[in-house]
Design the sequence.
């Protein structure tokens, strides 16, 4: 998969390094000569150019990219890059970094954004996830379909502990995508039994989040009434 990353700062380089390890083809774009540090990510392609200019994106052959990541420290730049990637080059997947949470409302399909990642929100969500059991934590927002990636750690007293995935009546517009059990990452199938302490990751419509949290947090004594 070919991925173009606009912004070769610490965030962009970190993303590039991880994607390269997973076998993807990476192009890093930045207009600042000081940001072009080929030795830091030697396996990536590098382009010294302004990612907000069509001529630069033509040079980057953005139409050949499967994914574009707008990862600069400037929200205005990330919005422009996202819009151009989607509307001018038809890039299937556009991921944008939100630097100021107050601007998050702008990062939607109107600006070509498929997935918006707010670093401060993600950091706070990960803190919540580390200390919260039985509470739904929103990790990421997907622009299309008003869906979110959410996480909940199944508490010991949850009524669903011991229940097979296929026997649970999940809310509509909700999909269980991963079970993290200790050090294992499980792709759930209907025969898997849920266990207390499981970290459950869902893609769910925002309107279903409260219903999902209620379902997973119901205490055993409540179900006996």
Sequence:
């Amino acid at each position: 998969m070919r991925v173009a990353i606009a912004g070769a700062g610490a965030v962009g380089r970190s993303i590039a390094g991880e994607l390269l390890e997973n076998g993807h083809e990476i192009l890093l774009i930045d207009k600042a000569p000081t940001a072009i540090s080929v030795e830091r990510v030697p396996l990536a392609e590098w382009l010294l150019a302004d990612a907000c200019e069509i001529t630069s994106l033509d040079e980057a052959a953005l139409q050949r990219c499967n994914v574009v990541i707008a990862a600069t420290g400037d929200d205005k730049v990330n919005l422009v890059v996202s819009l151009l990637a989607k509307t001018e080059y038809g890039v299937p997947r556009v991921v944008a970094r939100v630097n100021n949470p107050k601007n998050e409302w702008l990062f939607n399909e109107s600006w070509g954004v498929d997935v918006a990642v707010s670093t401060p929100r993600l950091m706070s969500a990960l803190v919540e996830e580390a200390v919260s059991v039985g509470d739904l934590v929103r990790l990421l927002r997907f622009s299309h379909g008003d869906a979110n990636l959410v996480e909940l750690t199944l508490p010991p007293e949850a009524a669903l502990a011991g229940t097979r995935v296929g026997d649970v009546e999940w809310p509509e517009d909700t999909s269980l995508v991963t079970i993290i059990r200790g050090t294992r990452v499980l792709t759930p199938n209907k025969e898997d039994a849920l266990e207390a302490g499981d970290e459950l990751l869902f893609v769910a419509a925002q309107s279903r989040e409260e219903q999902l949290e209620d379902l997973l947090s119901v205490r055993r004594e409540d179900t006996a009434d």
